[in-house]
Amino acid sequence: MKILVTGAKGQLGSQLIDIINKGKSELGCIPKEIINAEIIGKSSKDLDITNFNKVNELIYEVKPDVIINAAAYTNVDGCETNEDLAFKVNALGAKNLSIACDNIGAKLVHISTDYIFSGEGNKPFREYDKACPQSVYGKSKMMGDDFVKEFCSKYFIVRPSWVYGYNGKNFVYTILKTAKEKGSLKVVKDQKGNPTNVEDIVHHILKLIVTEEYGVYHCSGHGECSWYDFAAKIIELANIPCEVIPCTTEEYSSIAKRPGYSVLDNMMLRCTVGDEMRPWEEALEKFINNVAY
């Protein structure tokens, strides 16, 4: 099997490559069909996914069996002030990969986001729920999802939430660093979601790509919490002396509107390859035990 990974130096892409090379994730062994897979990793410097000719040329040259699109413009506030760039990368990039992918009959995994939902209510969102994004980031990602559905016949749209991994920047590393440096921090308490470890996401992506169970999948940690609860648990597990102070969204300075409730339900995983996502507290504890801080 030949797998092309875009966004290969990002948080998810780089860890995905690491897991394939190791042959296992924290959840267990990866499918045997992937053990000896040829991995072609492309960063944004190697491949501009907004340029269709470049994308098409590369895919015809490499002829991968699977393309995993982990490339995205994920700066939520930055998307508000760089709207054209957000739509070029998150929407047109997905479209270009979808068309080129379909031309050679390859499978496409496209990483989506919980930000495509309204953020209203108190019931976990399922894959069939209507998208109603409230930010430029969410709107650009929703358009990317729509393009994948329109232009690719063999797709897996994988939608995680509140992602953190061993590589790159994320909420967990930020909290650990700030707690050590300042001894106190304010964290929003009126936004809820599911913290999700990249190990769990990758494990399920690799389970999916050896099947023909195409469609949309929510792929998030079990359970829900607020950003405040998440931060407090990080501090507790890391045993750092730090006061965590709750605040409201209004008190937190932000350009983009964040969803108040973006908890996801992994219904389609349960119905197909199985939902082995860990409770968010368990996955976080494993992460904290494995990192230096």
From TrEMBL:
Entry keywords, A to Z: NADP, Oxidoreductase
Molecular-function annotations in GO: dTDP-4-dehydrorhamnose reductase activity
Entry-linked InterPro entries: dTDP_dehydrorham_reduct, NAD(P)-bd_dom_sf, RmlD-like-bd
EC number(s) reported in the record: 1.1.1.133
Pathway note: Carbohydrate biosynthesis; dTDP-L-rhamnose biosynthesis
CDD domains: dTDP_HR_like_SDR_e
EC class (word): oxidoreductase
Ranges where the RmlD-like substrate binding domain occurs: 1-291
Origin superkingdom: Bacteria
Task of the protein: Catalyzes the reduction of dTDP-6-deoxy-L-lyxo-4-hexulose to yield dTDP-L-rhamnose.
Family: Belongs to the dTDP-4-dehydrorhamnose reductase family.
Name by which UniProt lists this protein: dTDP-4-dehydrorhamnose reductase
